[in-house]
Specification:
This protein is α+β, with helices and mostly antiparallel strands and 87 residues long. The protein is built from four helices and three strands; from the N terminus they run βαββααα. The protein has a three-stranded mixed β-sheet with strand order 1-2-3. A hairpin with a 5-residue loop joins strand 2 and strand 3. Helix 1 packs parallel to helix 3.
Length: 87
């Protein structure tokens, strides 16, 4: 489990959330309001489940690539162990 928590604002576009997930190699991002109050959490799985209803092809491709990349990184136990050892 990560020691760091990453957040986005409630009105951030899904592309911003994907950028955070990809850059930080996390599957979940906390959602806060404009005052920093925690509203909830968005998971990569939540975004992936919505992929079928996305009309914007570029957005669908971005989501699919991020899901694939993060899933691939997490599926290799050596990568997870190396990342945990580095912390």
């Amino acid at each position: 489990m990560s020691k760091h928590h990453y957040t986005c604002k409630e009105n951030d576009p899904v592309v911003r959330v994907l950028q955070i997930m990809k850059a930080e190699q996390v599957h979940r991002v906390l959602v806060t309001d404009s005052e920093g109050k925690l509203l909830g959490m968005v998971a990569l799985a939540d975004i992936a489940r919505q992929l079928r209803s996305v009309d914007d092809v570029a957005l669908a491709v971005a989501i699919a690539r991020t899901v694939a990349q993060l899933s691939q990184l997490r599926s290799n136990p050596d990568d997870v162990e190396s990342a945990e050892a580095a912390e």
